[in-house]
Design a protein that fits this description.
globular; 2 domains; alpha+beta; 1 helix; Lipocalin; eight-stranded antiparallel β-barrel
Length: 125
Amino acid sequence: MKTLLKRSTLFLALTTCVWVNYSLRASADSTAGLILSMKCQGGYNVNVWKRYSSGELLYRSTSSHGDLSLNKGTSKATEGVRVYKFQSGNYKYWVWDGTLDSQQSGTLEVYQDNRLLMRQACTKS
């Protein structure tokens, strides 16, 4: 009887853990839609998201240098190319969706105190 009780408890615990893990991940991902995904030189993976409820733009990037998440972005069409702008303190992050030469390319630019620190070519993924 003890063995059956132990097995039932273990099964219930594992089922609950798996269910909670998948349901939490799905609900977190379902609050925003992916607008742009790019792989950039230097190992940067950049995603721009838009919250369904508010329309707020979100920036997410991963690289060997670390991960970065920013909120409250802006978007503007400039010369046929859309640019998404985000800010954190005195740093500004600009994500160009396309170039004049190719809509499948893009650019990641990082500014500090309005001075260009980095510019990386990107391809849409």
